[in-house]
């Protein structure tokens, strides 16, 4: 069943923006970091191993920053985080809800 509620449509659009500006660069940086690592480890070149780790760390930051920027509820503008077992938002993790059915804060329908 596909919903065409404005909040659902807008959240789908935000997810696409997030995939394009967050996930795509993140994967590119991770792949670059892994390539650098696979080249640096056999050569025991510690400087490049540090650089590779840094790249992988940066990719994590890209993910967190773009998620916080774009992965928001269209109704209350809060980041859509996963919910705990009792249905309350779990804010301690850096995670985002993968396929949220509703906003954990205002209960707007998102998918
Ligand atoms: Zn909301």
Write a compact overview of the structure shown:
With 111 residues, the chain is mainly alpha-helical. The protein has a domain at 6-70. The protein is 57% helix and 0% strand.
Share of residues in strands: under 5%
| Biggest sheet details | none
The termini sit apart by 10 Å
Associated small molecules:
zinc ion
Give the helix tally. Answer: 2
Shape: elongated
- Let me know the number of strands: 0
* Mean pLDDT score: 89
Q: Decide which structural class fits the backbone.
A: mainly alpha
What string gives the helices and strands in order?
HH
Could you characterize the architecture of this molecule?
- The chain is an all-alpha fold and 111 residues long.
- The protein has a domain at 6-70.
- The chain is 57% helix and 0% strand.
- The chain has two helices and no strands.
- The longest helix is centred in the N-terminal third of the chain and has 38 residues, at 6-43.
- It is elongated.
- The mean pLDDT is 89.
- Residues 73, 75-76, 78, 103, 105-106, 108 line the site of zinc ion.
Kindly list the characteristics that best describe this protein.
mainly alpha; 2 helices; binds zinc ion; single chain; 111 residues
What's the structural blueprint in terms of helices and strands?
Layout: H1 6-43, H2 46-70
Helix pairs in contact: 1-2
Zinc ion binds next to loops.
């Amino acid at each position: 069943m596909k919903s065409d509620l404005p909040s659902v449509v807008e959240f789908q659009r935000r997810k696409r923006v997030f995939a394009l500006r967050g996930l795509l660069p993140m994967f590119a940086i991770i792949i670059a970091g892994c390539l650098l690592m696979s080249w640096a480890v056999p050569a025991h070149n510690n400087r490049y191993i540090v650089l590779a780790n840094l790249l992988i760390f940066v990719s994590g930051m890209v993910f967190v920053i773009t998620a916080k920027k774009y992965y928001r509820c269209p109704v209350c503008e809060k980041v859509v985080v996963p919910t705990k077992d009792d249905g309350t938002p779990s804010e301690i993790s850096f995670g985002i809800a993968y396929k949220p059915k509703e906003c954990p804060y205002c209960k707007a329908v998102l998918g």
